[in-house]
Design brief:
The chain is mainly beta and 175 residues long. It has helices at residues 21-34, 76-80, and strands at 38-43, 46-52, 58-62, 90-94, 97-101, 106-109, 125-126, 131-137, 140-145, 150-155, 162-163, 168-174. It has a single domain (21-174), classed as RNA polymerase II/Efflux pump adaptor protein, barrel-sandwich hybrid domain (OB fold (Dihydrolipoamide Acetyltransferase, E2P), Beta Barrel). The termini are far apart.
């Protein structure tokens, strides 16, 4: 595909582990200026990967235990709330059933494009790293991972619908 070449840049992040919108925009601008297709950052409790697809559309992915980029309208408590039990956005609500919840406010999409099949269907087995959907926030497409091993029981949100922080997206039977 393309050759890997070293690149070094300095961006001064605000204190803490959450990135604010301006910092994410700086990273995206840096990628465009440097003609980078993928950028990955790891520091303390933050792991962020930003990549451009074939159409040039930017997607981000945050690792388990990391905080999503800060968005306008999200309270500091929502952004700073630590993930429990190492299960990322998935939290136990019923015996043996896990709800994969939205880590941010945005628009929910079950597939990468309108023509593509959904990432997951009811009855499908998932692992912690399985991408289950995309949430669009501020024109950035964020891949959401199951963060649990099990079987999808139910899709709780229609594609194209707005979702709130912490809103259940999928019901999963834990393996």
């Amino acid at each position: 595909m393309g050759e890997t070449r070293p690149f070094r840049a300095t961006i001064n992040f605000t204190k803490g582990t959450a990135l604010d919108l301006q910092e994410v925009k700086q990273l995206i601008d840096l990628m465009k200026e440097s003609d980078l297709n993928e950028l990955e950052i790891e520091q303390k409790d933050l792991k962020l990967r930003i990549r451009r697809g074939p159409s040039g559309q930017v997607t981000t992915s945050t690792g388990a235990g990391s905080h999503p980029p800060a968005l306008p309208g999200a309270s500091p408590e929502q952004l700073a709330a630590p993930q429990k039990g190492g299960e990322g956005a998935a939290q136990k609500d019923e015996d043996g059933v896990i709800y994969v919840k939205s880590p941010m406010v945005g628009t929910f999409y079950r597939s990468p494009s309108p023509e593509s099949p959904p990432y997951v269907e009811p009855g499908q087995k998932v692992t912690e790293s399985t991408v289950v959907c995309i949430i669009e926030a501020m024109k950035v497409m964020n891949e959401i991972h199951a963060d649990v091993k099990g079987t999808v029981l139910e899709v709780l949100v229609e594609s194209g619908q707005p979702v709130e922080y912490g809103e259940p997206l999928y019901k999963v039977k834990k393996a």
